[in-house]
Design brief:
single chain, eight-stranded parallel beta sheet, three-stranded mixed beta sheet
Length: 257
């Protein structure tokens, strides 16, 4: 899987914000995200944040398939939330009756908790995308990987009001056997992608749309971004892609767990 930006890029400053954050203390309750949560309905509390706790482990292999079957897509949106671009994408998803999985950077979730709650209230799912978006995580120690994953899990859960991320996506696809096993033990299925829209490179909305249409036969999980810079091209591309997918008869699903 592609590694965007060749390293930390704009996320380098997030690492400083994350410094000193400790793994979540025992006894703090968290909630398991429910696929059908809409219109602000509260999910049921089902898990403890204590590592190991009451969290139900999931499969540690990297998932790509959709829970809606062979003729479905999984819209995944990385790096936010962002106060400019995330609300616009939420509006487009609502207008097209589409659900998405938002892979959030922990410090972004902490900075914009109201947006995290809006994502959950609209029935979308949450995904842990680490603290600093370090695309070289697979070269770092297990202690470093653990901190990146678990601190982000805590930040996202707290920002959402108690809804836990259901997936873990390594920055740039920098998974390791250890990070996959750790995430899975926390109930977060490692999440890959089949279609890289290349929106991160800002090639123009038409080019993003063309890439999605061309690469869709590769599989159902499509990668977009709602932070990390100007995402106006992604907004415009989604304005075109979402109706097109419906016209082609695709359903909008979530990655299987």
């Amino acid at each position: 899987m592609a590694r965007h930006g060749g390293g930390r890029g704009w996320y380098g400053r997030l690492a400083m914000a994350a410094a000193g954050v400790t793994v979540l203390a025992a006894g703090v309750s968290v909630w398991t995200a429910q696929a059908g949560v809409v219109d602000g309905a509260s999910p049921r509390p089902t898990a403890s944040a204590t590592p190991g706790g009451d969290v139900r482990p999931v499969e540690m292999s990297i998932v790509h398939a959709s829970d809606k079957g062979a003729h479905a897509v999984n819209i995944t949106i990385d790096d936010g939330p962002d106060p400019v671009w995330t609300p616009q994408m939420l509006d487009l998803l609502r207008e097209n009756g589409a659900k998405a999985t938002f892979c959030m950077v922990g410090t972004q979730a902490k900075a914009y908790p109201d947006l995290v709650k809006k994502v959950v209230a609209a029935g979308h799912r949450l995904c842990d995308h680490s603290i600093s978006h370090d695309t070289t995580m697979d070269t770092k120690s297990q202690a470093y990987q653990s901190k990146e994953i678990l601190d982000a899990e805590r930040m996202i859960t707290e920002a959402s009001g108690g809804v836990r991320p259901m997936y873990y996506r390594a920055p740039g696809g920098a998974f390791t056997p250890y990070s996959r096993k750790l995430a899975a033990s926390r109930g977060m299925r490692p999440l890959g992608w089949n279609v890289d829209s290349k929106d991160f490179e800002r090639p123009g909305a038409d080019a993003i749309v063309a890439t999605v249409e061309r690469e869709l036969p590769n599989g159902p999980t499509i990668l977009f971004h709602d932070a990390g810079g100007d995402r106006s091209q992604t907004v415009e591309a989604l304005r075109q892609v979402l109706p097109w997918l419906k016209e082609q008869g695709y359903e909008f699903g979530f990655p299987v767990r």
